[in-house]
ABC transporter ATP-binding protein (Trinickia soli), 235 residues
Amino acid sequence: MSSELLQLAGVHKHFGAQVVLNDVNFRVAPGEIVGLVGPNGSGKTTTINVISGLLQADHGTVDFMGHKINRLPMHRRARLGINRTFQVPKVFRDMTVRENIEVAARSVRLDPREIDPILEDIGLAGTASRVAGALTVNQQKLLDLGRALATQPKLLLVDEIGAGLNPAELNVIAELLKKLSARGIAMIVVEHLLDFLNRITERVIVLGAGRMLFEGSLETASRDPEVIAAFIGAA
Ligand SMILES: Nc1ncnc2c1ncn2[C@@H]1O[C@H](COP(=O)(O)OP(=O)(O)OP(=O)(O)O)[C@@H](O)[C@H]1O
């Protein structure tokens, strides 16, 4: 069995005539944070969806902990330890913060004693009895993250968590993601905010029109002619 947590090999995905992912190959190790960047429409969210099971790849394989998971539905992948946050946080607005976490926790029969530490981690212990609909966008993003954490993920797919947040809020999220990584949770972070990404990861994958253009440090990516051309072409 490979020591990698996740491996994508030759992944293709099309919608009708449009090829959205074209031979995507990469690996993620346990506890590693990998950034996924690229212009709008380059296939970042589709990559996340193919890993989480919301979509299935047309060709290629997705391996998780040494097992091929291509055909597993999303809930089975979640039980194996893959979960995600959403660009627009998906919280139950009429439930309290605590109830939101409890619902997610029940799906994996998490020990209820684990809920308070999650509320502490996401900084919402003081607002646990407020309804989620009354939270700020930043707090809803943290709650969305907390709901994913309640499923005890080994791999967290984080989709544009930084959008719309101020520098202080970004700081809190960056520190939290680093803390989770240090505990062994791997992450793929889709993000347009490159400064934010630079703080939390040493390796990025750049997609352009569904193809992998680059894999390496963000600093090297910013000097790569193909990467520059993809971003300029998309501007
Ligand atoms: N369900 C779908 N049906 C048809 N086309 C889709 C579907 N989902 C995505 N697409 C198309 O696939 C391409 C890649 O979309 P995707 O959302 O993966 O890009 P992205 O890199 O995440 O973009 P953004 O940065 O804007 O979120 C786009 O052209 C998009 O319009």
Remarks:
- The pocket of adenosine-5'-triphosphate is lined by residues 15, 20, 38, 40-46 (CB under 6 Å).
- The beta strands are 6-15, 18-28, 33-37, 59-64, 67-68, 82-85, 155-159, 186-190, 203-208, 211-216.
